[in-house]
Amino acid sequence: MTQNAAPTPTLIPLDNVDPALVEALLDRAFEPERRQRTAYKVRGEADCLPALSFAAIDEDQHLVGTIQCWPVALNDADGRAHPMIMVGPVAVLPEQQGRGYGQALVSAAIAALNPQAPLPLVMIGDPEYYGRFWGFTNQHTAGWQLPGPYEQHRLLVRVANPAVLPASGMLGPWTR
């Protein structure tokens, strides 16, 4: 007996999707109260980065998942802003979870990074899951702070050279 394989997700740029559909999906995945979460304070009023933000479409051409990435910075004690990219939310409709959509979205965002100038990626997420598949770790974030409540062990970073990371600072919106 053969098992049905998970569908291969179709990914498209998020800016090709009606923003109202994206908001409805985020509300279903995270509840409308999501806007009170610390991650929203970290990224502030910035627009997501279109080149790193995607939508997953199922075989029936329905929106089933999204990923958004945001310009943020870790501001150190000397007032220097260290640019980073905040990954998330990674959202998949509850009834579609476990089918590979989230993995495809995160992999696409990482693959879209500029290899000549890869900024550190930061996220609030499950260290075992995001560490196992993409190398995110909380090993370098113990001295970092966020502008709201969070669990320190869930503050993750992915960077090729950890030596570029400040040991401490406040994560917040990137302002140029």
- Largest sheet entry: 8 strands, mixed
Radius of gyration: 16 Å
Q: Tally of extended strands? A: 8
Within CATH, the superfamily carries the name Gcn5-related N-acetyltransferase (GNAT)
Shape: globular
Number of helices, counting only DSSP H or I runs of 4 residues or more: 4
N-to-C CA distance: 58 Å
Q: How would you state the average pLDDT, rounded?
A: 92
Which structural category do the helix and sheet elements fall into? alpha+beta
Helix content: 10-25%
Domains (count): 1
CATH topology: Aminopeptidase
Order of helices and strands: EHHEEEHEHEEE
Could you list the spans in which at least 5 consecutive residues all have pLDDT below 50? none
Domain N-acetyltransferase: 9-168
Protein name: GNAT family N-acetyltransferase
Pfam families: Acetyltransf_1
Polypeptide structure, described:
There is one protein chain. This protein has one domain: Aminopeptidase (3-Layer(aba) Sandwich), CATH 3.40.630.30. The model has no long low-confidence stretch (mean pLDDT 92). With 176 residues, the chain is α+β, with helices and mostly antiparallel strands. The chain is built from four helices and eight strands; from the N terminus they run E-H-H-E-E-E-H-E-H-E-E-E. It has helices spanning 19-30, 38-43, 101-111, 127-134, and strands at residues 10-13, 54-57, 63-75, 81-92, 121-124, 144-145, 155-158, 169-173. Strands 1, 2, 3, 4, 5, 6, 7 and 8 form an eight-stranded mixed beta sheet that branches. This is GNAT family N-acetyltransferase.
